[in-house]
Amino acid sequence: MGEKQCRRKAANAAQGSTLRRAFQAGLEGLRLESGLSRREFAERLGIPRSSYFHLMTSAANPSLDYIELIAERAGVDPLRLLPRLANTADARRREVREDDRQDESFQALAC
User: Fold this and answer.
1) Cys staple from 81: which of 26, 51, 59, 100, with CB 3.0 to 4.6 Å?
2) Rounded CA separation 91/85 (Å)
3) What is the pLDDT of residues 26-84, one digit of tens each?
4) What is the spatial distance between Cα 50 and Cα 64, in angstroms, rounded to a whole number?
5) How many CA atoms lie within 13 A of 43 on its CB side?
6) Which DSSP string do the residues of 47-87 spell out, in sequence order?
7) Nearest Cα residue to 81 out of 12, 26, 11
8) What letter does residue 35 receive in the DSSP assignment?
């Protein structure tokens, strides 16, 4: 596969990045809660303003270490920066518990 084709493939993958979009929503939500401008929020996080703006683009690809660093500097749990994913995981756990309870009820009736 050629370099140009690899770049195109990577760009297409980035467009649909659920993790990236969840991170961006969480980060922006945290900024809005703080009442700070993007510049002020970047300063509070100790990152250049340009880096903050880059994080909000489709080209952003922050590492897990970088996400943890930002969460630490913001004083929040890293999962708070991935709100939709955390909510989805919680919902899935509730579904599994409910399924388990239904299975137990069915087995009790079968006996």
Assistant:
1) 26
2) 10
3) 999 999 999 999 999 999 999 999 999 999 998 999 999 999 999 999 999 999 998 86
4) 19
5) 5
6) S-HHHHHHHTSTT----HHHHHHHHHHHTS-GGGGSHHHHH
7) 26
8) T
- Supply 11's token pair: 């760009």
8 A C-beta contact, residue 79 and residue 86:
yes
Can you read off the two tokens belonging to residue 108? 């009790």
Please identify which residue in the block is written with the tokens 């994080």.
55
> pTM of the full predicted structure?
0.62
Q: What is the helix, strand, coil percentage profile of the chain, to 5?
A: 80, 0, 20
**Rounded CA separation 85/89 (Å):** 6
Q: Which domains does the chain have, with CATH numbers?
A: 3-110 (1.10.260.40)
Token pair, residue 27, equals 């980060």
